[in-house]
Prior knowledge:
Two copies of one chain form a homodimer. The first copy, chain A, is 60% helix and 8% strand. The first copy, chain A, is elongated, with a radius of gyration of 20 Å. The termini of chain A are far apart. The first copy, chain A, folds into two domains: 3-84, Winged helix-like DNA-binding domain superfamily/Winged helix DNA-binding domain (Arc Repressor Mutant, subunit A), CATH 1.10.10.10; 96-181. In chain A, helix 2 crosses helix 3 (38-50) and helix 6 (109-138) packs antiparallel against helix 7. Chain A is mainly alpha-helical. The relative contact order of chain A is 0.10. The interface between A and B is large, with 72 and 72 residues. Chain A binds a DNA duplex through helix 3.
Amino acid sequence: xxxxxxxxxxxxAREPASGYDLSRQLRAPIGFFWRARHSQxxxxxARLEAEGLVTHAVVEQQELPDKKVYTITEAGQATLQGWVxxxxxxxxxxxxxxxxxxxxxxAEPAAAAALFREHERHHAEQLRVYEALQQQLxxxxxxxxxxxxxxxxxxxxxxxxxxxxxxxxxxxRWVAEQLERTD
Amino acid sequence: xxxxxxxxxxxxAREPASGYDLSRQLRAPIGFFWRARHSQxxxxxARLEAEGLVTHAVVEQQELPDKKVYTITEAGQATLQGWVxxxxxxxxxxxxxxxxxxxxxxAEPAAAAALFREHERHHAEQLRVYEALQQQLxxxxxxxxxxxxxxxxxxxxxxxxxxxxxxxxxxxRWVAEQLERTD
DNA sequence: TCCCTCATGTAAAAGGTTACATGATTTA
DNA sequence: TAAATCATGTAACCTTTTACATGAGGGA
Lengths: 183, 183
C-alpha cells in the first residue's frame, strides 16, 4: 500500500467522499501535510477498491454530473488502524527556499530580501487560515481533548501547522532584516 | 535545469567536489533541506557538464580509487546567481507522521504515544547535531553576519534547521503527553 | 570472514506533475 | 463571452528510489 492510499483511507474513515471531494481536501487544509492531484487520486481509489478497502456507489445529481461516492470498508478501517501506530521515518524536508538560502551569499542583498518578504507574506496568509480553523475546532469544546475523537486528531495536527507557519514566518522576517541592514 | 542541478551548483560554488563528496553532503547536514542519492547525482553532473556549467578533472589517488573532481564554471556561477533570487513557490510539506496524526483517533493511545516519543528522541538527536554545527559556525566571528560570506548563508540556513527541530520536538512531546494522560 | 568506506556508474520501478480529453451549469 | 465549478478519467513526462554491478583496501 502506498502512502497516498493511507491518506485517502484516513479521509474516508471520517466520512464518505467522491474522488473530486478528496482531491479538494488534498489541496487545503489537509494539503498542508500531504498533497495529491486528481490524476493520482482516481487510479488509487480504483486500487483500494480492488483490494476491498473501499466500495463505491454512484450518486445521481440533478443539474450536476453523477458522482462515485466512496466508503471505507471494515477491512479498510483495520488496515488504516494498523498503519497509524506503525513506525515511520521522520519526513525528509525538500525546501527550495532553503536551498536558495544556502547560496544566498552569491545574491544581491536587496533582491534576496524581497524574496524573503514575499515568503513572509505567504506564511502570514497561511497562518490566518489555520487560526480561523482553530477557532472553528475550539468551538467543539471538550471533544478536541478526547484522543478517540476525530476532532482531537484534527486539532493536534492543526497545532503543528500553526507552529510551522509562525516559525517560518518569523525566520523569513529575521533573514529579510539581516539583508536589509546596509551597515 | 532541475532543482537538483542547482543544489549541486550551490555546493560546487563553495568548493570543488567529486560526485561521491556531493552525495555525502546531500545526506547530512545539507540533507536537512534537500536530499539525493548517488544514482541521481552522477547523471546530473554529466548533464551539468554537457551544458558547460561544471568541468571535471580526474584525480588519481594512491590506495584509493581515482575520482572525478568537479569545478563550477563562470557560466555555472552565473546560472546559480540568477536562480537564487528568482521567485519560488513555498515548499510542499509531505510528512507521513502528520498524516498518521490526522488518523490518530483510531489508534490505541498508548501505542500512539510511543510513536511520538520515538520521534521526539529523533528530533532531539538532530537538534544536538545542529547545535554542534552552530558552535562551529559562531567561531567564525563576524563573517556569519556578512551577507556576501558563504558562512552567513550557512548560518542563516542552519537557524531554520534549529527552529524546525526544536519546534517539532516540542510538538511531539506535547502530543505524547496528551495521549499519556489517562484521565 | 564479513562489513564498511571509497568510488562511479546503469536499469528498473515507483511516485508525482503536467497535459490531454469531455461536458454541463453557473457566475462575472 | 469567458472563466470557474463540478465530475471523472488517461497518457506522457519528469523525478526519485531501489536494485544491480564492480572492485580495492581497512577494520572488527
